[in-house]
Specification:
mainly beta, 5-stranded antiparallel beta sheet, 3-stranded antiparallel beta sheet
C-alpha cells in the first residue's frame, strides 16, 4: 500500500474497525492506516529466492545492489545484504522497491540509462514539420 508520497508499507492486519496495521517498507515500527481509495494504492508483493541479485530502491533516492539472504515463509519481509557495504537489513519487497538485477552492477544500469537518454535527445533534436517539410531545431 502507498501511504503518502513515495512511502510504501506492507499491511499486516485489518482491525474490526476497518483500519489497517502496517509497517513502512524499510522500517520496523507499525502504523495504523486509514485505507481509503485516496490514501492507498495496492501493489503486488514480490518474493525472491535466496542468493538472487536485485536492484533495490531504499527510501526515495537510494538505488542499490542487494543480494537475498533469506526469503520469507510468509509475507514479503526479506533479509538482504546491501552491496558494496555488506550491511544486512530486513525489508518488505514489492514491485515498486525491487526489481531483477539485469546488469552486473548498479553503476552499469546508470550508464545504460544515460546512454539511452543521450540517444533519445540526439534523435529528437531535429524534427521535420509534416506540412511544410521544414526541419525544426
Amino acid at each position: 500500500a502507498n501511504i503518502g508520497l513515495l512511502r510504501h508499507c506492507t499491511i499486516e492486519q485489518i482491525t474490526e474497525e476497518g483500519l489497517a496495521i502496517g509497517r513502512v517498507d524499510g522500517e520496523d515500527n507499525r502504523q495504523t492506516i486509514d485505507m481509503r481509495p485516496d490514501t492507498v494504492t495496492l501493489v503486488n508483493s514480490t518474493s525472491w529466492p535466496v542468493g538472487h541479485h536485485i536492484m533495490l530502491l531504499r527510501g526515495s533516492r537510494d538505488f542499490m545492489d542487494a543480494v537475498i539472504l533469506k526469503s520469507p515463509d510468509f509475507g514479503t519481509r526479506h533479509l538482504l545484504k546491501l552491496e558494496p557495504t555488506g550491511e544486512k537489513v530486513e525489508m518488505d519487497l514489492n514491485e515498486f522497491n525491487s526489481t531483477d538485477q539485469n546488469f552486473k552492477h548498479i553503476e552499469d544500469y546508470h550508464v545504460a540509462v544515460k546512454e539511452y537518454l543521450t540517444k533519445k535527445l540526439e534523435n529528437g533534436r531535429i524534427v521535420e514539420d509534416a506540412i511544410t517539410g521544414m526541419k525544426l531545431h
